[in-house]
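Incident log, entry 3
Record: Peptidoglycan-binding domain 1 protein (359 residues)
Problem: checksum mismatch between cached and fresh output.
Input:
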Amino acid sequence: MATPLSADKVLSALKAEGVKVVEYKSWRTHNRNSAGAWGPVHGVMVHHTVTSGTSASVELCYAGRSDLPGPLCHGVIDKAGTVHMVGHGRANHAGKGDGAVLKAVIAEKKLPADKTADTDGNPHFYGFECVNLGDGKDPWPAEQVEAIVRAAAALLRAHGWGKSGDTSVIGHLEWQPGKIDPRGPGVSMSDIRKRVAARLKQSAGWSPSSPEEDDMPKRSLYETNSYTRTVRPDTWTTLNFNRYYDGKKWVDKDPEPSVLLGPCYYTASVAVKVTGLATGQEFKVRVARYRQENGKYVRASAMPTDSPVNDQGKGHFVYTWTGHVPAADKGRLRVEVQHHGSEPVTVEWARAESLYWPA
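Fresh output:
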């Protein structure tokens, strides 16, 4: 049995994990405890708001709706990765879900498919609503996903969860039949759980740079603009990016294949739009580390390949990797794609968005 953390302890845990936090109105005493129990708690649940805009989303999650009083979660995570605290105690976020899933969360075992709605989850889960339309098109920025990972890791660490598994953090879609959140390009619960598990192996607030320094990552954002790339069959092809975001505006540049320079640790999300695929044809995407050798750059290693299957002749694919680019031999990270069709295909647009920590 896990007793819920006090408001002060929740806040301390989040800040210790390097989360940027904003306290909204009277969040410390804002709850639905009058409607039922709060606790024992067993895990963290991730949602999307089906809204846009930080201010409106935060107020909605604080006040609720006419048919569902607030708070609708404990924290709202905006697109920039800031967590806005809107409640402490019981919140209307989880609803009824599968009791077998709750048992798996408690035991930290593999999650079963959610088939029934027989158990109230509101007493048992901390909830984070994330600002996203939930239409499958609205992207999840790397900063937002990183904040989800850190917020979940903070609460798991504070409770001592995650020692025998990483299923103490789940998505709403894994709890209640019919739910789809979190959904959209750049987010997946399997990726979030892997990254939470990795953080829990480090000390609180860890980053690959000095723990005494600011733990927040730097951002790298590259994109193609009126620049296409032909991908011939059976050949790994490096994508070139011809503009980058300098923190205030987009800057055009000569086509550049590298999206990160070492030494650094990184979490990189890559989005690709491609046309010319045959129905059912795979399109492979990966990031690869290159090193300088005899004045030329050669591939040193590649991360696991994601192979989405196209079903309409074109696709928009988004995947995320986490890794390390060493300083040795001027290491750098590049994006590669491949397919095995009979005809060339065209990458019409691509974006590589990374959070990185100089090593």
